[in-house]
Each structure stands twice: as C-alpha cells, then as structure tokens.
C-alpha cells in the first residue's frame, strides 16, 4: 500500500471516531471504553487496534528505506569520483636489464638495448650493412648467432654487421616493431635505397652467397657467355652511361628478385650498348623469351611479374619454411627428390633430367662438343698464347681440374693472369694502384682461394665414387616419351633438411657425400630409394629401371632408422615379464616375423594423428589383461602412419584391429567397423576366431579374473560344458582317423579329461591347470605321451 493511500484512509477514519476522542486526541480512552463493552463489539475493536498499529509503523519503514537509498547513492558517487580521479598505472615488475647478445670480442656491433635509430644510422654510413633483429630468448636467434658471426668474419672487409635487440621492453625497436611473429629478421641495407630482407636458410654458406650476390647483383657481359650449368639467366642490352634510368630500374629489379628468391635461380647479365630502348632476354633451358617492352612498361614491378610468369626450370630447389605449408606436397606429385650437399651432384642430375624427355640426344657428345667448339670461339692469337703457356701452367691447373669440372674457357681465364710473366713489357704495370687491372685480377684470384678454403672448412670436398658398371651404357634420352612417364627433379639441401630424408627412410649420415636420390610416386603411394652411390651411371640405371617397373617398393621409414623419439614399449633381447601386462610395439622390420609365429596374434593399427586411438589402446590393454594367462595369444600394435608395410597388411583407416590365427595366417579377420570397440566386444571377437583349444584356455583365463562367487561358478560351469563339447568332437574325429592320428587325438583327450576334472573339483589349482593347458597346446612331438605311444602301439605304423 502506498503512502498516499494510507494518509487517505486515516483521513476517512477520523470523522467516524470523532465522538470517542477528547480534545487532547487521547486514543487510550476510547480503547478502554470499547474493551468494557459486550462480546458483540470485541472483534471489531481488535481489528481497529491492529490497523492503527500498522498505520503508525509503515511510514517509519518507508522513511528508513529512503534514507538508506540516499546514503548508498552518495557512497557510489564518492567511489566513482575517486576512481575517475585516480589514474595511477598498474604496478608491474620492472623489466630485466638488457645484456649483450654477442661476445665482447665479436666483430658484430650489438645494439642490445634496442636503439634501432642509431643502428640504422650506423648501417647507412657504410656501403652495405647487414643487420640482424633478434630476440634473446628465441631458440632460432640463438642458433643464428653462430652462423651470423661466421658470415661476418668472412665478409667483414666489404660489409659491416650489426644486431639489434627488438625484444627489450620499452626499447625503441620493441615499440616500433611489436607485431613481429618470427625471429630473427635479417635485412641488408645498401647505402642508398630500401633494405633487402634475407629469406633463405640461416646458415653461413647461404648467407655469404646472398651477400656476395647483393654486392654484385648484375654481372657485366662482354664477349663471353654465361655459365653452361646455370638454370636460367637474363641478358639485358641497355645504355649504362652514368645517370642511366634504365640501368637503375634493372638494378632495383635485381635486388627485389634477390629478396624474393634467395637461392638466386636467375642471374642478371648486362651488355652495355648505346641503345635508346633496353631489351631483356630470359634464357631458359629450352627456349629464350623476350620482354615485351611494347605492352609493358620498363618498371621493376612489371619486369618481376613477367619473370615470375615466364620462368620455368627442369630442377626446383625447395626450402621449406619450417612451419605448416604445402610447398613440398605440390612438388611431390611425381618427383625425383635429390638430397644433396654439393652443387656438383645437382649439376650432374640436372643434365640427366634435361635429356630425359629428348630423343636422339647424347650427353657425352654434347659435352664433348662444348670443348671442341672452343677453338672456333676464340681467335688465333688467343690460341697461340694458350699453346705457349699450357706446359707452364699444367701443374697449376692439375689440382683445380680434380676439384670441379672446368671448361677451356676457364683454362683461358686462369692463363691470362700470368701474361706479364711470359711476355715482358716496358709499359707501366700499375702495381702501386690497387684498382689497376692487374691488382684487381690478383684480388679476384685471392678471393677465390679464400672462398675455397672457407668452403673446405665448412664442408670438406667429397669426390664421386667409381661405379662398378662403368662399361654399361644406360641411354635414357627420349625415355619419357617412350614410357609415357614424367619426372620432376626436386633438390633439397641435405645438411639443412635431413629430417625430410629420414621420413623416407634415408639415413644421410651413412653416405659419404651426404646425398641420396629417391623417386616418389604419389599415385601408387610408393617411393623408391637408390641404394648405390650417387653418380651419373647409377642414377641413369635407377631411372631406367623405374620406367620398366623393375624397382622394388621401399618399405623404409622413420621407424627403420631407429630414431630417438621412436616409442619402443618392448625392449629387444629382453625376457618378457609375465607379471606385467603390455602390448608389444611393432615396426616395419619386426611386423612379418611377429605375425608369422605359431601363435594367435592381435594387431592394433593406430596413428598419432588419431585421437580416438588413445581410448582404444586402453580397451585393448584391458582385454590383454583378461587374457594374460594364454601363452599362445599375443597382443601387438603398430603405427600404420609411420611404418610402411606390404599392401596386403596396409589399412586405410584407423583404429583397426586385425586377428591372425595360430594356424592358417591367410585366414586373418578384421574387427567389424559397425560394432563399437569395447572390452566385451573385443574379447568376444577374439574368442570367436580362436582355435578350440586356445579358446578353452582363454575362457579359463577370463574366469580366473572374475570377482564375484556366483559369476565365477557360472563361468566354470560354462567351461565344463565347453570341455565336454570339445571332448565329444575329439572322439568323433578319433573314430574317423587312422592309427597315427588316433595317437595324437588320444593325447588331446587325456589333457581334456584332466582339465574337465580340475574345473569340476579343483578350479583353484592354477599352476596344475596351466601345465595341462601347456601340454594341450604344445606340439605332440615334444610330449612324453607321444614318445610312450611311439614305442608301443605306434611301432608298426612308424
């Protein structure tokens, strides 16, 4: 009831009772008078008193609630005002002090406090600077530190090296680059223009090659041709006079391409000519393309777009990023992966794969033609000069020829360096000028020697092994057309991506040259491994046998390499402990020997990518525990995703349970896919497919583990009935058999009779029951009863 209604009610009540109230509004008197009246007026009087009491208390309660609400409102306003005026930042612990990432004696300038502006200013003061942005806690940054220092020691005369800590809290670099998701980041800064990011493998040889290409992104082409063994190269004819805009566009294009392709699959050559419009020619392994200057502008972006659209090669270098990607899947459609650590092997295989689709082509004749055509490319003066000096430099060139294939053009280059020693001159030699041609040639030769020594230190040179079948001729030219099969060469650095080879079952550590060749047939889900040393003859024979379908499918995988992370639940060469229940782990090598044992084998196929397999493992382990007393029953499991098995033992889905009987391995059974994989269903599936004697043993093993007395007695009653059925069946077979078979069946009947009596009178004698089961399931030739009968009634039969 509201306060206005209460006041209105009081106003209506006062006129009716005015004759009972005196001038002082004393209400006690009417109440006492009303109480002295008869019984008929007693109930109304009490109702009036109750209403008057409630009318006095209700206004007081409402007033208190109003006061309380006012106080709460004032309190909330005070707290909100206090919170608004208080703007202190949350109290957090101080960031740890920055510390140097590189050693003090390192030639790398370390800005470990994150001073990125000073670092870039320092880098811009040199011709070329290489900066590593790192995070001290990052494992890849810690691994890159050693490689970065190795590259710095080699290139310190030409490039300055610096490092910036971009993870230090509140540092300049952290505030500017707070959304970098991967460390380290390597960027090369020329003196002019934008920086060039390095996206290749973080190891010293690749970094040195990238920096060398960065210092000379464009090579000058005079009268010589590029290297024969290059995948592709670009020759540009343009005006290279100072201030040429066309040359600046080409230079920017070369740097941008270097950032996109750190492997430098395409080399840029410039042929200086006084032309008004530049012309660009892309030379591929089978054709030459011309840049359409009419349809496209001479700008770096459009030139790069045309190069990416037009470029194709016989071989493809793959550099996985380390994260989840599909770069390898596309290349493995029908590929010939080559895991090599040396350019020589890659060049050899590239030449083989080049003649693979071409008919009437001979590699030897083409290679010989390159050498024989040298005399036609040079003039008579150069040839005479070469003849005069060939004996003088023969010993000097002997060691070079052993290290790498060398053409006559290369011989001429080496010979030109000592022209002054053969022909004396009175002209100024320019020895005091460091940039004179003679001194530059000496510097170039010194750099080649230093590069060779550094490469020899990082990875020693390895020479090709001589093959035993050198006299055989494996001509594969045009074999692709005749066999209607295609191959794509995929090359990977074996020193960096060895784990890809391990997944295919190739152990590169066993190969001297750390190289291997594998053919992957994705359609047939097969791969083939070259077991012989990698050379020209063995690779040709390997490809020829593949086209003739004469290569055996390789079953090698990670498990065959005995990787450290492989889980082996059963140690080899150790006695099995019967007190422990376990499931034996199989691999490719142990699968066939295990399932061919004279035992009933249960194989559980699983995969680490199958989350449902974890629950099935516990179900199978429980079933193995219930059947642990059966010696002729073995529970195993195998990772079908890692281990390669013959086709008849390969499953297409996981989890899968396969049963191999003790006798007749060809009569294997698969657990039905439409039945839930539970302990009762798995045990019932096993009992259904077991032999009669092993099934009886399995039933006894289950009854021994029954806890309740009533169930236990019922279980043994079932075993007794099963024993009687087995005895009856054996007697029928005994009546139909010959004398020799009767002795075998008689031995079986004796053991069944003893077991039946034990089940009926002494089921608790486990050891005695186990001994009878052992006799029942063992071969008769090992039994004493057989030797006793052999000397007796079977004497005439034998």
TrEMBL record:
Segments of skewed composition (Polar residues): 30-42
Span of domain Thioredoxin: 585-666
UniProt-annotated stretches for the region Disordered: 14-42
Pfam family, one: Thioredoxin
Source species, domain of life: Eukaryota
SUPFAM superfamilies: Thioredoxin-like
InterPro entries: Thioredoxin-like_sf, Thioredoxin_dom-contain_11, Thioredoxin_domain
PANTHER family: THIOREDOXIN DOMAIN-CONTAINING PROTEIN 11
Name recorded for this polypeptide: Thioredoxin domain-containing protein
Native source species: Rhamnusium bicolor
């Amino acid at each position: 009831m509201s306060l206005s209604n209460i006041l209105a009610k009081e106003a209506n009540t006062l006129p009716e009772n005015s004759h009972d109230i005196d001038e002082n509004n004393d209400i006690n008197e009417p109440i006492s008078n009303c109480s002295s009246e008869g019984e008929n007026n007693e109930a109304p009087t009490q109702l009036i008193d109750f209403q008057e009491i409630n009318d006095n208390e209700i206004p007081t309660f409402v007033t208190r609630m109003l006061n309380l609400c006012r106080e709460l409102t004032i309190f909330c306003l005070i707290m909100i005002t206090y919170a608004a005026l208080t703007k202190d930042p949350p109290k957090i612990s101080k960031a740890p002090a920055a510390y140097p990432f590189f050693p003090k004696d390192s030639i790398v300038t370390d800005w470990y406090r994150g001073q990125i502006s000073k670092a870039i200013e320092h880098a811009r003061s040199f011709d070329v600077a290489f900066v590593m942005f790192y995070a001290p806690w990052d494992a890849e940054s810690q691994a890159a530190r050693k490689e970065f220092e190795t590259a710095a020691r080699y290139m310190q005369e030409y490039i300055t090296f610096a490092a910036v800590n971009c993870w230090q809290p509140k540092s300049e670099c952290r505030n500017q680059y707070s959304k970098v998701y991967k460390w380290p980041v390597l960027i090369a800064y020329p003196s002019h223009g934008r920086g060039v990011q390095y996206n290749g493998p973080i190891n010293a040889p690749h970094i040195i090659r990238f920096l060398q290409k960065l210092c000379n992104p464009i090579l000058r082409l005079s009268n010589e041709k590029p290297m024969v063994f290059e995948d592709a190269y670009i020759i540009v004819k343009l005006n290279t006079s100072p201030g040429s805009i066309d040359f600046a566009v080409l230079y920017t294009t070369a740097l941008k391409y270097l950032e996109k392709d750190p492997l430098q699959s395409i080399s840029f050559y410039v042929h200086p000519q006084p032309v008004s419009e530049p012309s660009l020619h892309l030379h591929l392994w089978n054709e030459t393309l011309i840049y359409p200057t009419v349809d496209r502008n001479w700008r770096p972006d459009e030139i790069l777009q045309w190069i990416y659209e037009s470029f194709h090669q016989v071989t493809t270098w793959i550099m996985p990023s380390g994260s989840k990607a599909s770069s390898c899947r596309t290349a493995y459609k029908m590929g010939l992966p080559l895991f090599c650590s040396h350019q020589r092997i890659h060049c050899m295989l590239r030449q083989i794969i080049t003649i693979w689709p071409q008919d009437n082509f001979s590699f030897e004749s083409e290679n010989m033609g390159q050498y024989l055509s040298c005399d036609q490319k040079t003039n008579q003066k150069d040839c005479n000069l070469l003849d005069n000096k060939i004996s003088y430099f023969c010993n000097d060139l002997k060691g070079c020829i052993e290290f790498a294939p060398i053409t006559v053009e290369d011989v001429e280059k080496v010979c030109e360096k000592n022209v002054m020693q053969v022909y004396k001159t009175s002209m100024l030699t320019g020895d005091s000028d460091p940039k004179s041609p003679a001194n530059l040639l000496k510097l170039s030769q010194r750099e080649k020697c230093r590069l060779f020594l550094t490469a020899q230190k990082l990875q020693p040179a390895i020479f090709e092994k001589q093959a035993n079948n050198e006299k055989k001729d494996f001509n594969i030219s045009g074999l692709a057309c005749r066999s209607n099969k295609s191959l794509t060469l995929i090359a990977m650095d074996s020193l960096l991506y060895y784990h890809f080879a391990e997944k295919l079952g190739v152990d590169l550590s066993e190969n001297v040259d750390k190289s291997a060749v594998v053919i992957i047939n994705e359609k047939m889900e097969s791969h083939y491994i070259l077991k012989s040393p990698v050379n020209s003859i063995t690779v040709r024979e390997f490809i020829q046998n593949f086209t003739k379908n004469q290569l055996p499918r390789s079953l090698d995988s990670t498990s065959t390499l005995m990787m450290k992370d492989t889980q082996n639940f059963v140690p080899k060469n150790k006695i099995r402990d019967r007190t422990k229940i376990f499931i034996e782990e199989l691999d490719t090598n142990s699968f066939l020997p295990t399932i061919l044992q004279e035992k009933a084998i249960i194989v559980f196929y699983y995969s680490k990518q199958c989350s449902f397999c974890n629950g099935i493992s516990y179900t199978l382990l429980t079933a193995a525990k219930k059947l642990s007393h059966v010696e002729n029953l073995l529970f195993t499991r195998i990772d079908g995703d890692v281990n390669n098995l013959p086709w008849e033992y390969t499953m297409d889905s996981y989890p899968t349970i396969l049963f191999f009987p003790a006798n007749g391995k060809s009569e294997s059974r698969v657990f039905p896919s439409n039945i839930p994989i539970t302990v009762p269903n798995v045990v019932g599936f096993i009992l259904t497919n077991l032999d009669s004697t092993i099934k009886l043993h399995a039933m006894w093993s289950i009854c021994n583990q029954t806890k309740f007395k009533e169930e236990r007695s019922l279980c043994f009653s079932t075993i007794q009935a099963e024993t009687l059925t087995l005895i009856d069946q054996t007697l029928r077979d005994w009546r139909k058999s010959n004398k020799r078979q009767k002795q075998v069946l008689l031995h079986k009947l004796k053991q069944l009779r003893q077991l039946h009596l034990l089940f009926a009178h002494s089921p608790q004698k486990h050891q005695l029951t186990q001994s009878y089961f052992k006799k029942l399931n063992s071969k008769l030739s090992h039994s004493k009863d057989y030797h006793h009968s052999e000397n007796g009634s079977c004497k005439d039969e034998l």
